[in-house]
Write a structure and sequence with these properties.
107 residues; alpha+beta; GIY-YIG endonuclease; globular
Length: 107
């Protein structure tokens, strides 16, 4: 039986002005939803759809705890977290694995 993984992620707008923290069990699918504005809300309204950081957790509880922790952080701390692993703030979405879908063909 495959083990479920849970992800905490940070999105940035193209200008890097806006940041968003989220949690999901399907990182490629969730980021695709942000990119296509399927979720509406804050990320759609402000164009926050560039995956600039994420980490993996083995339980939903741990991921949710971490998401809540990061949401409480000052912006500077979030920026430091991103730049520790992704100094140029590249969009990590293209490098994600997309099993059993044709998302890349649709672009």
């Amino acid at each position: 039986m495959a083990r479920s993984m849970f992800y905490v992620y940070l999105l940035a707008s193209k200008s890097y002005r806006m940041l968003y923290v989220g949690v999901t069990s399907d990182l490629p699918g969730r980021i695709w939803q942000h990119k296509t504005k399927a979720l509406g809300g804050f990320t759609a309204r402000y164009g926050v759809d560039r995956l600039v950081w994420f980490e993996v957790h083995e339980s939903a509880e741990a991921a949710i705890r971490r998401e809540k922790q990061i949401k409480e952080w000052k912006r500077e701390w979030k920026i430091n977290l991103i730049e520790r692993d992704n100094r140029p703030w590249i969009d990590l979405y293209p490098g994600l694995s997309h099993p059993d879908d044709n998302r890349d063909a649709a672009r």
